[in-house]
Structures are given as structure tokens and as C-alpha cells.
Amino acid sequence: MLFSFARFALLAVATVRHVAAVASTDSYIDADVGQSSYLSNHNMDPSIVDSPLFGQLWKISFNANEQFYAKPLVYTPNGKNQLLFLASSQNWIRTLDAKTGAILNTRQVAPPFLQKDIPCTDIPNTIGIIGTPVIDPNTDTAYFYAKTYVNMDASQQGVINGRYMFFGVDVNTLQDKFPPIVVDGSPADNDPRKYFMGGAILQRPSLLQVGNVVYAGFGGHCDLYNYTGTILGIDVAKKAVVANWAVEAGPSSGFDLNYLNNQGGGGGGIWQSGLGLASDGNRLFFVTGNGQGHENTNVPATGQSGCRTLGEAVVNLQIGSDGKLAVADYFQPYDYINMDGGDQDFGSGGLTLLDPTVFNGKGVSRMALTSGKNGKIYVMNADNLGGFKQGAGGVDKVIQTIVTNHAVFGGSGSYPLEGGYFYSTPVGYPTYAYKLGFDGSGVPVFTQAGVSKEVSAGRVGIGVPTVTTFQGKSGTGILWLTDPDAGLRAWYAVPQNGILKPIKMPQVNGLNKFQRPVFGDTRLYVSDATGTVYCLGSPVNLPLNCTALDFGNVALGSASSSYVNCTALTAITSLNGMTVGDARFEVKNSTLLTGNIAAGRTFQ
């Protein structure tokens, strides 16, 4: 077959063997509780992923202008098939059969808030369910926040009428487990002057459930309006708000009753490019953005100093037995005031808690990572984050600062096997792998061990590096990354001679911003910027494996031709022809085989 481009479709009738599914595996939260982004339980075998057996199983689209900023969740109710739970910007929730994509249930929980009501286009058209929900496997309940209007009445528009509703729905039916909870108007526990106003605030980070309490972070819409970064906690047994913690509190924080005053509440949004809140069980970790209050100026302060203006900070909140939150520790970079002035948002990258059984060393039993717009990766002691100007000479007291001079959105991923690695993908740059090592006294030190040849999109939207292994085995690590231009990318997790070796992925459109692939059993799910949801996995039952073509540079007005070499992966009864999806290219089928083609036969 003489061909002029690599994008084509083969029409074949083949005899295919179906492989039985393995035991079910679920993703009922965004990655893992600590946001380490290492997942070992999804049967992602690199020998299958890096082969023609792995490909697109199905895809589905829904309403016009409907998008999925909340990541999908994968869950298996008792005695039922594994399902996919979707929540959209239009406040639609759906369940699909995770294997086939068949729609099981669908419901719009409330009219969505309209983007036209705010002069911020980060999320176009509608702003409904944006933060990733969480499913409680003990009760089959999915929890999430939906942005809507007062009384869920679409005619009551405008910022002042915006409301956030907290829902708990049965994943089997999508019906409410209890009446939706209005959280607007609840005062902050650490500054009662400040109360929650849903119209001026955005619920972006993935939700986290600790015991009976579901925690969520809130930030601003392009830093507009009078907002304060907030953590809300709702006790789902009591059906009530039990925690409302404000990032900026006290007399040094901003306070204004005029909701139109931009950052009048002090700012300090918690958004983390959608990355979830992290926890180790009794502590909550997150990173905040630009703030207006500056209690810390030139005087060094410990992380237990009681600072109440925690914009541009890594924060550790202690979770009380009643679900209440109190500051236990924090880290605020020595130059955070300059970061505020330059919009070097510290909170764009979220926080990663590393596996303490691997990532530890002298004086450090648990490590944490963060990075943001300011071009630095901070490696911290999670039990002593570093306070403010606690280092020698008034600089940062952290384990290590890696200066990259490149902005990061979405956070880091980690791999605790084969010596221990973490990964970072700055905007417009390659993906970097850093390996754990130790200095002469046993203190942990990371060094760059590898880099990808592929460069990420030169715009905001790169996802979170995420690593899977096949049943937790060394040597099977795969590093995954979503890209708003390139789609889905993957590499072998351990660099080879300083290079991350790529794994060819099935082509999907540019993926929606700040995503990560969500995994089921040998399958993964992603969504693109047009609202299409894809399922990739195996067995894909491809009848043929054909070589891709690279024509290199072809001058305008010139032509270039090449042959496609194909191998039959199974017995084919008839081959009807090959087509191209782009009118600028053509294919000639004059050498195409006709009739029966035996498995294993190669042809052009």
C-alpha cells in the first residue's frame, strides 16, 4: 500500500479472541490520599501498554459546551459491574459501564452558574461541578459541590446570587442520600467576620474524605471579588458544616463587606490546578496562592508561630476529633511578598506526600514536595515544614530547593520503587525525573536522573505526572501525563541513560487542562477539551499492526510517498481497503492483499 501520511483507518473483518477481565480495581478518589500519584493496583502491564494490544476501547460525548474538569472516578458497587462516575461543568452527573461505556444513569443536579456572570474565562460557558468528587465505598455515596444560584433557580443570576450546594448521591441511582446542603453564609472558625460567599469563590481541588468529614478547598475566579481562600469540612453523618477555616484571618488580613472589591477578603486561594488535598490520616496538607495579608515581614518565625495570614504557604492543619481544623505547621518562602507582587502563585502546583517507607533519611521520616509559578521545587520535612526565614541567613529551612526557573501547574508525581523517583513537568518544557540519594551524613538529596525528549505544551494545562506499576512489581513502572496539545503521553518510569523512554499512545485530542488519567482494571479514562471521554485499554482486538510513517519536511508544492508495512495479528477473512482522514493526503490500495490473510503474514 503506497501511502502519504500516518493517520489512516483499516476496514477489516477479523476473527477475534476476547480475554476475560481481571479482578476489579477502583479509583474512588483522585489518585491516593497523600497525592503521591503512585498507583500499583490497576494491572497496567507495560508489555501490554507498549504493544498493539493497547488502544482506544470507546469514546463518548454529551451536550454542547459540556466539559469535565472534575476527573472521572471508577467504582464497583457490591455485586455489580465496575462503573465510571462523571461530573460535569453543566452540573450533570452520570454513571457508565466502565468496560463498555454504556450509560447507566444520568441526572442534572442543579442549573449551573454561568461564566458570563464573572469577567473570568478560565472556565468557559458554565461553572458547575469543577472539583473532583469522592466516593465513600462504605455507603456507595458520591460527594461533590455544585455551583448554582440561590434556591437552584436559573432565573436568579449574578455573582451575588451564586451558591454552592453540597451533594451526597447514591452511585447506584444518582438520587440524593440527603437534601443538598447550602454552605453559603457559614462564618470562618478562625475569623467570624468572614463568611462563605459561593458566587465569588471556586471549588477547584479534588475532595478528600477523612472519617465522616468531607473536606474541600476553595479559591478565586482570576483573583476577582472579595474572597478568602477556604477549607470547608462537612460531617456527612451530621449533615452539617463542622469546619470553615480561612487562609487569611485576623487584623492583618483583608476584610471588606463590598463583594466587588477584588481580594478584599485577603485572597490566599486554594486551587492547586485541581490537585487534591493531601492527608496522612490526622493532618491536612495544601498550598495557597497570592495573599494580601503579611504578618510575616522581616522577623523569622517558626511553623508554630501562630501566623494567621497564610497566603503563599504550605499549610498543615491538624484534624480534630470533631472535624475542626487548626494550624499545626506551615512553610512560607522567605521571598513570598515579592512572589505576591509578581503573581508567582505558590499554590499552582499542590502538595505531594511521598511514601515514608522509601523517601526518608537522617532526621526526616516523611517528605513532602511542592512547586509553583516561581520556578522552584521545594523538598520539605512533612513533620517540620520550615516556617518563615528559619534557614541560615534568613533563607528557607527546607531539605532541598531545586531551582528550575520554570513554572509548574498541577504538582509532582512519584515512584517509590527502584531507588525512588519524583517527576515534574514545567509549562513548555520536558518532563524531568529526579532520583533519591543521600549526602555524606544521610540527609536525602534529589538529583536529576532523566528527561523526556518530548516537550509539554507551551500553555497552562499540563496534568499531574502519575505512575502505575503492574501489581506493584519493580521494572513495570509507567509514567503518564496529560497534555492540552499532545493528548496522552507515557514513558517507562526509570530513565535509561538519562532519557525517559516514550511509550507510544493511541491518539486522542488535546486533553482538558489539569487532568490525569484515571485508572480502572487494565483501562484508563481521560477527557478532552471538547468534552469527549475516552477509554483506553486492552484487549483492543486490533486485526493489524502497521508501521507509522514520517515524511519529514516536505516543501510546499512537492510530494513524498512511502509504503505502509502491516502484519496480521489474527486471521482476517477480508480486507476492504485503507482510507485517510485528511484530504491533503492520499492512499493507493493497488498492492493491498485481498482474500484470506493468515495470522502473522506481513504485507505492504
Q: Roughly how much helix do the residues carry, as a percent range? A: under 10%
Give the CA-CA distance, first to last residue: 5 Å
Low-pLDDT runs: 2-23
Number of helices: 2
Number of strands: 46
Strand percent estimate: 35-45%
Placed side by side, the strands forming the largest sheet appear as: 21-22-23-24-28
The biggest beta sheet is recorded as: 5 strands, mixed
Going by helix content, strand content and strand pairing, the class is: mainly beta
Mean pLDDT over the full residue set: 92
Gross morphology is globular
The radius of gyration over CA amounts to: 25 Å
Describe the protein.
The protein has 604 residues and is mainly beta. Among the domains are: 1-18 and 543-604, no CATH class; 23-54 and 410-540, no CATH class; 65-182, Thrombin, subunit H, CATH 2.40.10. It contains two helices and 46 strands. It has a five-stranded mixed sheet with strand order 21-22-23-24-28, with no helix packed on it. Strands 30-31-32-33-37 form a five-stranded mixed sheet, with no helix packed on it.
Task: Kindly summarize this structure in a few lines.
It is built from two helices and 46 strands. It is mainly beta and 604 residues long.
Features:
single chain, 604 residues, Thrombin, subunit H, 5-stranded mixed sheet, 46 strands, disordered N terminus
Helix-strand layout with pairing:
Elements: E1 2-3, E2 8-14, E3 38-39, H1 46-49, E4 55-60, E5 73-75, E6 83-87, E7 92-97, E8 103-108, E9 113-114, E10 126-127, E11 134-136, E12 141-149, E13 162-170, E14 181-182, E15 187-188, E16 191-195, E17 208-210, E18 213-218, E19 230-235, E20 240-246, E21 278-279, E22 283-287, E23 314-319, E24 325-332, H2 336-341, E25 351-353, E26 367-371, E27 376-381, E28 387-388, E29 400-403, E30 413-415, E31 421-424, E32 430-438, E33 444-455, E34 466-468, E35 478-483, E36 487-492, E37 499-500, E38 518-519, E39 523-527, E40 533-537, E41 544-546, E42 562-563, E43 566-568, E44 572-580, E45 587-588, E46 602-603
Parallel strand pairs: 3-34, 24-28, 33-37
Antiparallel strand pairs: 1-42, 1-45, 2-44, 4-40, 5-6, 6-7, 7-8, 9-10, 11-12, 12-13, 13-14, 15-16, 17-18, 18-19, 19-20, 21-22, 22-23, 23-24, 25-26, 26-27, 27-29, 30-31, 31-32, 32-33, 34-35, 35-36, 38-39, 39-40, 41-43, 43-46
